[in-house]
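Re: the request from the purification team.
They wanted to know what the chain is likely to look like in 3D before they choose a buffer screen. I agreed to run a prediction and write the result into the notebook, where they can find it.
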Amino acid sequence: MDIPLSLFDLLFTCFVVSIVCYLVCYKRRLMFGSIVILFLMITGQFIFFGSHSLDSWMGYIKLICELVFGLGAVIGFSLLSRRLQVSYLSAFTLFVNIAVLGNIAMMIVIPSEGTYRGLTSKVTCILLVVWLIQEIIKNRWRTTQYQNGFFLFNSVPLAWIFSHCIYRIGLITLPIFDSYRYILLEPISLVLMYVFYRIHKAGHPVRFYFGLADTVAVSTLAIAEQFLGWLAPLRMPASEVIHFSQNQLDMMVVPIQMGVAVFALRAIVNNLRHSPVSLSLKHQ
């Protein structure tokens, strides 16, 4: 593995993220136009140069979902007039809730490829989804709002955010994640969350910005994977970069995954105890 070239790759990816962050904060029309151009480029590349195999189709659909229906939808809605935003906020919120829960729940079907951490990650993922549904229900599914163009998602506690980050760090050690670039996902998501919070200065909790931050991070890394093809010889799983065997990774990751699962289960139980239904039953 070429260490200098790999470091340059990671730094260049961070540079691209910083540009996207700037566009999202200050030049949303330019950002939306860039998304349209990227969509046309990706689609043209797939149509004329893609293998059209099942894996190729799945990769294309995943990329379009992250770019167009993820970042594109968030930025596009921010460009609508205030009147249209108010009129269609309920429908957009429903779309966001389904997309958020579906995107996380989709991780359940990631192949474990004979690893124990692949199995424990499924359990952890299910519990995180249930916990998030409870938090969304607390807000009566009214989870989104826009203020000065910033997308805000109000239903993720900081405890859930950090639990999800720890879970996903273990997840990307699975062999199916064939690029070390994914190691940037969690640091970028957390840093962008704080950056958006500081730039917006609207008095909202920092956790409100995780939805926008993670959308930007996931979409940008997906685009980096698509267009930095000249670094293809460096594509390799993160597990190979850190030089641990699959058994060693299992021994390290499984306890962490199970710790997150126990923490999520405790949060779920606490939410059930403090739900309106349980409180009403106590008074009876």
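For the purification team: DSSP finds eleven helices and two strands in the chain.
Please add any questions underneath this entry.
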